[in-house]
Design a protein that fits this description.
Elements: H1 20-23, H2 35-60, H3 65-86, H4 95-115, H5 120-148, H6 152-156, H7 190-213, H8 220-241, H9 250-271, H10 275-303, H11 307-311, H12 325-335, E1 338-340, E2 346-348, H13 357-365, H14 371-383, H15 392-395, H16 398-405, H17 418-424
Antiparallel strand pairs: 1-2
Bound molecules: fe (ii) ion (FE2) (4 copies).
The site of one fe (ii) ion has 6 residues, from helix 9 and helix 10.
Length: 436
């Protein structure tokens, strides 16, 4: 693979302003779309939102009028691109359907990034976050069935497992201990920089989606589940963004943003199975190549630096989607009991001190019960057990996973216990395909 984006030709900026007719495209079909076409679309919406938001933050601190003008011009394009991408969602895809798609992105993207991450500490952080989004998918899947009668596999298409992960009630941490050590901009690879920014963008979008849609359901417990998981996504943004070297200059960050957009669209374009969307990714890629050239010229002019020293000479692949069941199961079985320690590192439940910083937060938020536990309680009340979509062998391991993954202290009063999961083993798994 040889693709040096700095040497490719992009679409001139003046041609990037499109008509509304071209900006708003026909949505994909809820049931026909390949699940990984949907995950690409969800992720690229997050990438565009970050590209737009970053340029606003930069402009607010920028005194140079030339830079401000270029930021304003490109920012409008980012915004139009965001509309194009996000509005590919069909109107009959419910908020819960889309939510399952968001968590599928988080799981399968993070697993891919972890396996393609050269920095061991960054990889460990990806693996840590992975098990939390994995549990979110399990909790939301209960609601997809309870509230809308949806088979989670209508959305996930059998590519991502639905079973318990690190229990969501244990994801609420003191936000200070979420902070991680950052990479060194002088030694980190372009792959590390792009991997992290890709994940930050995805997690931030997930947070925003829950924050802006959770209230759209009238059911109190469902609404509170969105509030609970939305707060965890805030922690995820805090965690992943803290991996970025804060001493990168604003122009350097701009360059990395455009490069991240180029890499992600390139990856979408090469992987896409839907012919129409492939053309859309191709066009957006050519627009981003031009943005990258502009950012590269500015860093040469203002900082006398060679952009290749920052982003290298090769494209990186930050968003290849494929089933990651085997990888995720392995992390689940080995790292479900992992926790954040107070020295920006990791520990395990058995080593937590009684005054561990996160206990106070966990006690406060789960004081009247955890909505994420209520979701499973409600499935048990309706079906005698939880909704799961996975190989029976993995489903049988749920009580053991909970035994290893649940903290003994600061538990929500409505926690579904290990004994409850053992009892569920004797109840038939709900079969969505069964003919009545
Ligand atoms: Fe963009
Ligand atoms: Fe999540
Ligand atoms: Fe997340
Ligand atoms: Fe861009």
């Amino acid at each position: 693979m040889t693709f040096n984006a700095l040497k490719e030709k992009g679409m001139p900026l003046e041609k990037q302003i499109k008509s509304w007719h071209d900006i708003v495209k026909r949505p994909y079909k809820r049931m026909d779309v390949d699940c990984y076409t949907r995950t690409r679309q969800i992720l690229m919406n997050g990438i565009e939102t970050e590209a737009w938001g970053f340029k606003h933050c930069f402009a607010r601190k920028c005194e140079d009028n030339e830079l401000k003008s270029i930021l304003a011009k490109i920012r409008r394009i980012e915004d139009m691109q965001q509309t194009t991408v996000n509005w590919l969602s069909p109107v009959n895809q419910t908020v819960l359907d889309t939510t399952l798609g968001y968590e599928q992105v988080a799981i399968d993207l993070t697993a891919w990034l972890a396996q393609n991450e050269p920095d061991e500490y960054v990889k460990e952080t990806f693996d840590f976050g992975l098990l939390e989004d994995f549990d979110h998918l399990y909790r939301y899947s209960q609601w997809a069935y309870l509230y809308e009668g949806t088979n989670p596999d209508d959305i996930l298409q059998g590519m991502t497992d639905v079973v318990i992960g690190r229990p969501t009630q244990n994801h609420h941490n003191d936000n200070v201990i979420r902070l991680r050590k950052h990479y060194d901009k002088n030694t980190a690879s372009a792959q590390t920089k792009v991997n992290i920014l890709t994940l930050v963008s995805g997690e931030q979008q997930t947070h925003n989606y829950y924050a802006e849609h959770g209230f759209m359901y009238g059911n109190d417990d469902l609404k509170k589940t969105y509030a609970e998981i939305c707060d965890v996504e805030e922690e995820h943004v805090t965690m992943y963004e803290s991996l970025i070297d804060p001493s990168e200059t604003a122009l350097e960050k701009w360059l990395i943003h455009e490069f991240t957009e180029v890499c992600n669209y390139y990856n979408c374009y090469t992987d896409e199975v839907d012919k129409r969307l492939k053309l859309i990714w191709e066009e957006l890629l050519s627009m981003e190549i031009e943005h990258l050239h502009i950012a590269a010229d500015l860093i040469k002019k203002h900082e006398k630096r060679d952009p290749e020293e920052i982003i290298g000479t090769e494209i990186v692949l930050p968003c290849h989607f494929e089933s990651q069941k085997e990888y995720v199961t392995n992390i689940l079985e080995n790292e479900v009991g992992k926790r954040l320690d107070e020295n920006m590192d990791y520990t395990t439940i058995d080593k937590l001190k009684d005054d561990w910083a996160s206990y106070d937060v966990q006690e406060a938020v789960a004081d009247k019960g955890a909505p994420s536990e209520k979701a499973v309680q409600l499935s048990i009340a309706t079906l005698g057990r939880d909704i799961v979509c996975a190989d029976k062998k993995l489903v049988k391991k749920q009580s053991g996973l909970l035994e290893k993954g649940l903290e003994r202290k600061a538990q929500a009063p409505n926690t579904v216990s290990v004994a409850d999961y053992e009892r569920m083993d004797n109840v038939e798994i709900y079969d969505f395909e069964e003919e009545i």
